[in-house]
């Protein structure tokens, strides 16, 4: 059977011809589309190129911050107490970071991090994560040399404190963002902290800067702060306080040094202390600037105020005799007592011997509001307005609430509380012939010539003479004397109030001034809970005052106003026996 061949030549659909206009219309449409695309490209790239530039910049252009340097803190002579040093912070883009386990271990070792913590940070669903802040430049360089994708660094600043523990409570410290957290750093943060700038850059897909486009805003550096502190006197006070803390095994302590001519704080130290350059294991007790934040009942340190009131009123004179009897005085249902009977004492001797009975007899000749007014004029119960964070105002209740026994105890420093800085300022009235001025932490170019007058100049001088007797034979603070200088001051020994009861724990204090002929400095000392055999203010705080005042007067080149008498040196029994004196 013969096969029949099949062809498509006779398919009627193929035999039908296409219209001539169709291919021409398609060709025209393609040409028009091409011209439209060319025109659009020319428009976007030549006429209106903002759109494409915006899209490109969104992928590669970045505005980065330029950190500003925080201002320096210096002492009154220009010695740098706090400065910012450049450091690096290591950060990552988790999506781009794919280090091997070995690289993770090496990176964790360089950054002093736990491997699990590092892996956790790199696994975050985020475009940015800090791995370690404030890394030393040499460590950052080692990280950069690893050339890990997605791991970057940026420049920051870290605060450095050359004085370390000596200046810690005064200066405070800054956080990782270089903002003040404590002390002067916090009080003057607005002035010290600069304003960061910014610049526009081009980055590649790895986040590396490949082109610096423009500067948007120039950073404004922080303002330097010159404190009133004298670094040498600060170190003297710190050394003396640390020695006393060890000797008397005390819980805490503070020392304040004021320039009576200007009200400048020349030194302010506290214990326990800390190193602001290494704050890994800090406690609340270490951070407290006790000189301004802690208040206590000052005890006998307030007695010269009552003596000055007595002289100012004209009811008493320097040599007016007061009968203290057997050292006990009944008042309402309470008894005021002295450490021992003193009998008949002059007003000056009442201060020299620190007689509670004698001071109360003077105080009870005044109305409560008269006594309250003098305390208030001296600044007790009011904030010093130093601008220091946590500054305490103390406690001075309204006179209308005083009972007779409360007025009596307030005369010798119980029932009223103040900070050590407030007590130091109070004694400016005796150092400045009767007036008080504000205290300041910043350097003053011009001395304060006048202030608020509380006592007459004659009253202040006579009270100063009484306080000079305190440091002489028969007084309670012979250990507070300074060779070559006349010194005036008053001791304080008060029981600590815990809850609503007085305990067997003590606070020993001493506030004094020198030289008496022309007072230049006021030094205040407080020792909290001395636990050795000695706890009286004259025994514990007096020697600290002597050491600090002696060093500070010499550092300021203050001329002596008394003959230098040779000091007797304690000798052992063996030495005395060798000299045939036993």
UniProtKB/TrEMBL annotation:
Enzymatic reactions: Preferential cleavage: (Ac)2-L-Lys-D-Ala-|-D-Ala. Also transpeptidation of peptidyl-alanyl moieties that are N-acyl substituents of D-alanine
Keywords: Carboxypeptidase, Cell cycle, Cell division, Cell inner membrane, Cell membrane, Cell shape, Cell wall biogenesis/degradation, Hydrolase, Membrane, Peptidoglycan synthesis, Protease, Septation, Transmembrane, Transmembrane helix
Domain Penicillin-binding protein transpeptidase: 253-549
Stretches assigned to the Penicillin-binding protein dimerisation domain: 66-212
Coiled coil: none
Subcellular localization, as worded in the UniProt entry: Membrane
Enzyme Commission (EC) number: 3.4.16.4
InterPro entries: Beta-lactam/transpept, Beta-lactam/transpept-like, FtsI_transpept, PBP_dimer, PBP_dimer_sf, PCN-bd_Tpept
Chief subcellular location: membrane
Pathway where it operates: Cell wall biogenesis; peptidoglycan biosynthesis
Protease among keywords: yes
Recorded family membership: Belongs to the transpeptidase family. FtsI subfamily.
Name listed for the protein in its UniProt record: Peptidoglycan D,D-transpeptidase FtsI
